């Protein structure tokens, strides 16, 4: 586990100059899934957006126990905006490390680098993979593993993995959420940014992320991309092989028919998606199975979501649930994972 990025907790969330929550994806994920780690929020003067957390300046947050300031805002193109730099310097001077999932690297800014060195603070770019990642071996490992996979990108693989790990722990099981993306890493406090790993090492990174464990322990691994996505299938396949999952949960967005941003590519049927994913997964775990489908029903009413979930379950003969709608259907999906 020494290969994983380690993020100091708890956090002061920096909202930048955002005027609404559209650009606060990381902040929303942290607030929703790791509220105990989010001590407060801080933003540029005049910014209107809020996550509903207490407002604190860096020195106040440090005195309250915060160990790092997290860039909870995302700008177009993943840039670290020049107007944010004075606020980041203030945080370093207050004794906080800075954590960023942006494409721009904190360590590339001369002022931030100089102040961090002078104050003995860390600039943590979570989209930078750790050094020394191994080539995959395909060796079978002890412990149990669940991987979320998808018919497309951006449909709930992270939230599904988080919800399942939480549900496993609520049943008294030893379970860890294993993060593979920048927001997940900041939520979990550790992980490997799979989309930033050189292709030859993706499967090896997945092996390092979920090492040998007690036979009863579950690693619930955050999926990335989709085997059906012409842009990102490569990272999905490497993660699938290196994870060696015992259980898959297929994530799908209700009503989505084509790959987002690539309308010439239709989404596969649920049956085809399960079939191909299992076929590929059997390379490193011949006993893998699919427990069911995580259906993103955002935009549907409670009644509409229930109808969609039942219809899909009857159509394909598998457990189906929206993890963001707790209840009997989600309980059935959890039990199917553990069966």
Automatic annotation (TrEMBL):
<protein>
    <submittedName>
        <fullName>EBNA-1 nuclear protein</fullName>
    </submittedName>
</protein>
<dbReference type="InterPro" id="IPR035402">
    <property type="entry name" value="DgcN-like_N"/>
</dbReference>
<feature type="domain" description="D-glutamate N-acetyltransferase-like N-terminal">
    <location>
        <begin position="50"/>
        <end position="129"/>
    </location>
</feature>
<dbReference type="Pfam" id="PF17396">
    <property type="entry name" value="DUF1611_N"/>
</dbReference>
<feature type="domain" description="D-glutamate N-acetyltransferase-like C-terminal">
    <location>
        <begin position="135"/>
        <end position="328"/>
    </location>
</feature>
<dbReference type="Pfam" id="PF07755">
    <property type="entry name" value="DUF1611"/>
</dbReference>
<dbReference type="InterPro" id="IPR027417">
    <property type="entry name" value="P-loop_NTPase"/>
</dbReference>
<dbReference type="InterPro" id="IPR011669">
    <property type="entry name" value="DgcN-like"/>
</dbReference>
<dbReference type="InterPro" id="IPR035086">
    <property type="entry name" value="DgcN-like_C"/>
</dbReference>
């Amino acid at each position: 586990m020494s290969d994983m990025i380690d993020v100091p907790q708890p956090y002061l969330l920096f909202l930048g100059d955002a005027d609404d929550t559209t650009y606060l994806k990381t902040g929303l994920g942290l607030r929703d899934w790791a509220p105990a780690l989010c001590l407060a929020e801080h933003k540029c003067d005049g910014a209107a957006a809020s996550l509903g957390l207490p407002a604190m300046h860096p020195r106040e947050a440090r005195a309250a126990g915060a160990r790092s300031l997290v860039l909870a805002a995302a700008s177009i193109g993943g840039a670290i905006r020049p107007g944010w730099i004075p606020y980041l310097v203030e945080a370093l001077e207050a004794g906080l490390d800075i954590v960023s999932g942006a494409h721009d690297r904190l360590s590339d800014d001369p002022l931030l680098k100089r102040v961090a060195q002078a104050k003995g603070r860390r600039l943590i770019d979570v989209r930078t993979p750790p050094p020394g990642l191994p080539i995959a071996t395909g060796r079978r490992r002890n412990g149990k593993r669940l991987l979320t996979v998808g018919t497309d990108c951006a449909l709930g693989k992270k939230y599904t993995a988080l919800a399942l790990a939480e549900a496993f722990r609520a049943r008294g099981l030893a379970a860890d959420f294993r993060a593979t993306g920048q927001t997940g890493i900041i939520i979990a406090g550790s992980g490997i940014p799979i989309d930033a790993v050189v292709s030859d090492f993706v499967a090896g990174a997945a092996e390092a992320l979920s090492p040998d464990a007690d036979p009863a322990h579950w690693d619930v691994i955050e999926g990335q991309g989709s085997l059906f996505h012409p842009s990102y299938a490569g990272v999905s396949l490497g993660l699938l092989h290196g994870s060696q999952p015992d259980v898959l949960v297929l994530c799908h967005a209700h009503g989505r028919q084509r790959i987002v941003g690539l309308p010439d590519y239709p989404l596969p049927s649920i049956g085809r998606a399960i079939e191909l994913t299992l076929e590929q997964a059997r390379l490193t775990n011949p006993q893998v199975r699919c427990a069911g489908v995580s259906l993103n029903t955002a935009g549907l009413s409670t009644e509409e979501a229930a109808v969609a979930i039942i219809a899909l379950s009857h159509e394909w003969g598998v457990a189906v649930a929206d993890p963001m709608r707790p209840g009997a259907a989600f309980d059935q999906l959890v039990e199917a994972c553990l069966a």
